[in-house]
Amino acid sequence: MNKINKLIILSLFLVSCSFNSGSSFWSKRNINEEKKVLNIKQITKKEEILLKEVNKSLEINLSNLKKENYPLSYFDNNNGRTNYNGRLKSISRYKFSKIEKFDEYEPEILIDQNNIIFFDNKGTILKFDESSKLLWKKNYYTKVEKKLKPVLFLSAGQDILIVVDTIAKYFAIDIKNGDLLWSKYNDSPYNSQIKIFKNKFYVVDANNVLRCYSLKNGEEIWNFKTDKPLIKSQKKNSLIVKKNNIIFNNSVGDITAVNSETGELVWQAPTQSKKIYDESMFFKNSDLISAKNSILFSNNKNGFYSLDADSGLVNWKQKINSNVRPVFFNDLIFTVTNEGYLVVLDNKSGKLIRSNYLLSNFKKKKRKKIKPVGFIVGQINIYLTLNNGKVLVVDIKTGSVNKVLKIDKEKISSPIVQGQNLYVAKNNSIIKLN
């Protein structure tokens, strides 16, 4: 074999080594680059779901902690520790036409001052006062739109109620009398929280596009596109406002911060590998919350994250499987796993302080089907709603379940508190508990 042939064969060998995805050279470079992009430290090769109680007898005495209640924060999404200590003995309902897609989405009751705002199956918006008296009832959908049975997402600010929905319509209402101010359409449906900030409002559509609109007339000011999902997710996207930035998640696990005025990228933190694009329908993030200078959230892929709010860098990650919105106060983080464990974490280090199993009162065969929906932290107890229509009253100090209250046989929403009243919604009514 002459020298020329040898050189050709050698060249082909080197090329095949360089471009073969199974070669050690290529694989090593890919792994290093992916770690750099994700900025996540690999803890173990195979993640394990938390399925045990840890320090279950440890008492958390809130009276010894600093008096930092961190009440409900609109911009931070943090429910904090409320002043609620209800007896949950008196129950009243306001019924409406059944929302057929209630189980598929996460509709939430809106509290504006002392008033309650919600909607029904045909998009009719209902406003009640604190004594449950109906103040106004408005519907701005055509006959065709009503048949599509939109699910509505609501936000209030500056005496304006902003409404976006699952049929790509968005509009503004005078919150005092329910009169329509303006109405427009997007090219994609919405499944997102809404944040009103200064003279604008922000929302994420089903294509993972953050859109900034004028509060005055609904005209789009700018938009910021993130990776489009292959399959539309039914998990609601979440936004917070932090240091003049809008920080939001999308359906494929990216956390993105953009400037609220210009829409320019500040930072982005992908938290999932690319294979999640094929599984986006089943991937679920919790709502984002802000805790001092950290962004906290979790997902149903066994990851609870703390990100630096300024850079998006990972402060720490815990192996906790939950898509329920966490609660932060006094440097403690509370969450509930999809398997039914109440978990308390240290905000600074991410250290697991205590975990208690909450589903012991249910039959073993039924436990796998029971999922947490949402919770609030009161002065003494945690109030957790479940997808089977039950409310668990959990002692904060001990982590033990003091009461199981049956509200309904079907899924109920996350609880929300106004004064000493606790409200939940189901597919055909708003339920008030004293």
Structural description of this entry:
By secondary structure, the chain is mainly beta. It folds into 3 domains: 1-38, no CATH class; 54-102 and 325-434, Lipocalin (Beta Barrel), CATH 2.40.128; 107-234 and 236-283, YVTN repeat-like/Quinoprotein amine dehydrogenase (Methylamine Dehydrogenase, Chain H). 9% of the residues lie in helices and 39% in strands. The protein contains 4 helices and 32 strands. The strands form 8 sheets. It has a 4-stranded antiparallel beta sheet with strand order 1-32-31-30, with no helix packed on it. It has a 4-stranded antiparallel beta sheet with strand order 2-3-4-5, with no helix packed on it. Strand 22 and strand 23 (332-336) form a beta hairpin. The radius of gyration is 24 Å and the shape is globular. The termini are far apart. The model is unreliable at 1-46 (pLDDT under 50).
Question: Any chance you could write out the topology, listing elements then pairs?
Answer:
Blueprint: H1 3-19, H2 24-38, E1 91-95, E2 110-112, E3 115-119, E4 125-128, E5 134-138, H3 143-147, E6 152-157, E7 160-165, E8 169-174, E9 180-185, E10 190-197, E11 200-205, E12 209-214, E13 220-225, E14 239-242, E15 245-249, E16 254-259, E17 265-270, E18 289-291, E19 294-299, E20 303-308, E21 314-318, E22 327-329, E23 332-336, E24 341-346, E25 352-357, H4 364-367, E26 372-377, E27 381-386, E28 390-395, E29 401-406, E30 416-418, E31 421-426, E32 429-433
Antiparallel strand pairs: 1-32, 2-3, 3-4, 4-5, 6-7, 7-8, 8-9, 10-11, 11-12, 12-13, 14-15, 15-16, 16-17, 18-19, 19-20, 20-21, 22-23, 23-24, 24-25, 26-27, 27-28, 28-29, 30-31, 31-32
